[in-house]
Amino acid sequence: MKPTLAQGFFILFNVAAIPLVALGLYEPLQVIAATRAGDSPIPVDNGIHYLILMSVLWVLFGLQIAGLKGKTNIVRRWGSKVLLGWLLACVLIATLTSIGLHTHLTRAGYQACPDPSEQSRLSVGNSLIYHKQSCPA
Fold first, then answer.
1. How far apart are CA 53 and CA 98, in angstroms?
2. Residue range 111-121, pLDDT digits in tens
3. Is 26 helix (H, G, I), strand (E, B) or coil?
4. Sign of CA dihedral 118, 124, 130, 132
5. pTM recorded for the entire structure
6. Which residue among 38, 97, 105, 137 is the one 20 to 30 A from 32 at the CA level?
7. Buried-exposed string 40-62: b where 16+ CB fall within 10 A, e elsewhere
């Protein structure tokens, strides 16, 4: 692959990451707004929080720019530490967001209810559909 084509794909992935990271940060705000409004049911998707991991591409892009600007000593010394730190921070933020939303919903009086339309042979157990007070029959 030509370097210019590879750079084009890398920039395209960085631009595509913007709305996906925004979605990963926006969805918890929607759930909190729904609990304040008293909506029921509230569907929750815990996996969407991990879209913020795509922001690791921005760190890679920043390191690439720093390297092209002649700051190779800084990139060599701090690049891996910054990248690993950001990756761990993103995983921690996504995990704590999932735990925090579950805690917020249970404190607001919601409980996870089974929803047969959301379950399959591969996913048994409670779905992440929260209903106010009690589950419908």
1. 14
2. 888 766 655 55
3. helix
4. positive
5. 0.78
6. 137
7. bbbebeeebbbbbbbbbbebbeb
